[in-house]
Amino acid sequence: MDISTYLEPVKIKNLSVSSDSGRYSLADVAVIYTNENDFPDLEKIDVAIIGVGDDRATLNKGCNSAPDEVRGWFYRLYSHWNNLHIADIGNIKPGHQVEDTYFALKEVVAELLKNNITALIIGGGQDLTYANYLAYENIGRIINIASVDPRFDLGHDEHELNNKSYLSHIILHQPNFLFNFTNIGYQTYFVDQDSLVLMKNLYFDTNRLGNVKAEMEEVEPMVRDADILSIDISSIKHADAPAVDKAMPNGFTGEEMCKICRYAGMSDKLTSIGFYELNPSFDNNGQSAHLYAQMMWYFLDGFANRRNDFPENNHHDYTRFNVQVENFEEELVFLKSKKTDRWWMLVSSKDIVSQKYKRHQFVPCSYNDYQKAINHEIPDRWWKVQQKLM
């Protein structure tokens, strides 16, 4: 499939900033689509960057100019990886309707996935997460989504698809191939009780901002379990990222977001990540765009340090721990990677669904979950996955 028909070249002047010191900026090492007649060869590419300048389904008008604004800062940063091949395949051509843009993004991401290329999307509105999700339907994969967002973006059933209702459309889409959704950093005063009940009934994972900030290491298994990570800039506090129409006084710091992005990059399971809602018209001397660029850098740094230690690949590289919880018939099984010291739980399921959900039986967890089990407490992560596999 020729995805170049959906894309237009990057148009940024003075991309290269290399010096005589022998160090190379990302502009020097990435293959960048700048000439309409010279679309990059993607055969050996690991990560492809896609810009999507479309803000028609968001009230945050102006975020359509974010992709090239972020690129302007991103390509000034230095590369530290000899084993990572990056291509910037340009911007999705705006469709006549926003649905046309969704279709183009879906087709492009699906083609990248088929070729084992991870997609890095710079939006645009967070409604583009829906198009990103649809790409996995093309390859027949049941997936998990994680979102760093102060809200759940459920909207209401009757709402048209936009940046505040995209999750409802993902949940209601048929055929449905969403196994789990994880919110990271919701702020309770922005979330109504009905939404919390719905998320609980669906066995989705919701994590309050204060709890996440108190134990940032627990974010690692959250993003390690995701196929898609979607980031709304409003999850970052205003002092660190002012480029949004309704900036938040509370939220993650820039340093915390870079840590989350590095965790995401290190995950063998994650195959696409999106950075959304940045509005340059509200920015302060490019501060927010620069932060997004650094978050992308940390994602790539994590990606370059992937260790291919997902349990499905090789059971011999793990230490197995069997834990018998008091008053519980089933034995809990934990796996610890000998390569990275990362932990997983093995959740069994009925034979009729075991093949369909096989990759979801290995649940990323932390040492804290193992500690709970040996203290005769069933970890929440185990319960939720078990309920979905029943």
Give a topology summary.
Layout (H helix, E strand, L loop, with lengths): L6 E2 L17 H4 L1 E2 L14 E6 L13 H9 L11 E7 L5 H17 L3 E6 L4 H11 L4 E6 L17 H7 L5 E9 L6 H9 L3 E4 H6 L4 H6 L3 E5 L21 H13 L5 E5 L10 H18 L13 E6 L8 E6 L5 E4 L4 H4 L7 E4 L1 H8 L5 H10 L1
Parallel strand pairs: 2-4, 3-4, 3-5, 5-10, 6-7, 6-9, 7-8, 9-10
Antiparallel strand pairs: 1-4, 11-12, 12-13, 13-14
Provide keyphrases for this structure.
ten-stranded mixed β-sheet; Arginase, Chain A; alpha/beta; 390 residues; 2 domains
Q: How many domains, in number, for the residues?
A: 2
* Spatial separation of the terminal alpha carbons: 39 Å
Could you name the CATH class of the largest domain?
A: Alpha Beta
Q: Could you tell me the number of beta strands?
A: 14
Estimate the strand proportion.
Answer: 15-25%
CATH homologous superfamily identity of the largest domain: Ureohydrolase domain
Q: What is the overall pLDDT average?
A: 93
What is the N-to-C order of secondary-structure elements (H for helix, E for strand)?
A: EHEEHEHEHEHEHEHHEHEHEEEHEHH
Name given to the CATH architecture of the largest domain: 3-Layer(aba) Sandwich
Number of helices: 13
Please give the radius of gyration in angstroms.
Answer: 21 Å
Shape: globular
Low-pLDDT ranges: none
Short description:
The chain is of the alpha/beta class and 390 residues long. It has helices at residues 26-29, 66-74, 98-114, 128-138, 166-172, 193-201, 209-214, 219-224, 254-266, 287-304, 351-354, 367-374, 380-389, and strands spanning 7-8, 31-32, 47-52, 86-92, 118-123, 143-148, 178-186, 205-208, 228-232, 272-276, 318-323, 332-337, 343-346, 362-365.
